[in-house]
């Protein structure tokens, strides 16, 4: 599958809706690219930064996430 055919998705915290979530993973150093490459992601061990604790991140379409994050500012504009 070409990269452009992939749906744009992201992962969010179901409690606060933030995308500042991190996954517990194993990384291996690649001496050729000078980067840590993730070799596997643990099924448990998700962490949410705003909640400052463990979470179980959920998959969401990027367009849907952008819509969710934009809604509060739209409400403020209709109030004025
Ligand atoms: Zn959270």
Main beta-sheet annotation: 3 strands, antiparallel
Coarse structural class? alpha+beta
Query: In total, how many beta strands?
Result: 7
Assembly context of the chains: single chain
Mean pLDDT: 88
Protein model, in words:
This protein is α+β, with helices and mostly antiparallel strands and 80 residues long. It has one domain (10-79). 22% of the residues lie in helices and 34% in strands. It is built from 1 helix and 7 strands; from the N terminus they run E-E-E-E-E-E-E-H. It has a 3-stranded antiparallel β-sheet with strand order 2-5-6, with no helix packed on it. Strand 5 and strand 6 (53-54) form a beta hairpin. The chain is globular and about 45 Å long. The mean pLDDT is 88. The structure holds zinc ion. Zinc ion (ZN) binds at residues 13, 15-16, 18, 48, 50-51, 55.
């Amino acid at each position: 599958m070409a990269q452009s055919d992939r749906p744009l998705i992201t992962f969010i915290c179901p409690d606060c809706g933030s995308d500042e979530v991190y996954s517990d993973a194993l990384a291996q150093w690649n001496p050729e690219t000078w980067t840590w490459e993730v070799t596997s992601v643990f099924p448990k061990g998700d962490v949410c930064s705003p909640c400052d604790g463990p979470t179980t991140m959920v998959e969401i379409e990027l367009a849907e996430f952008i819509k969710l994050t934009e809604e509060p500012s739209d409400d403020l504009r209709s109030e004025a």
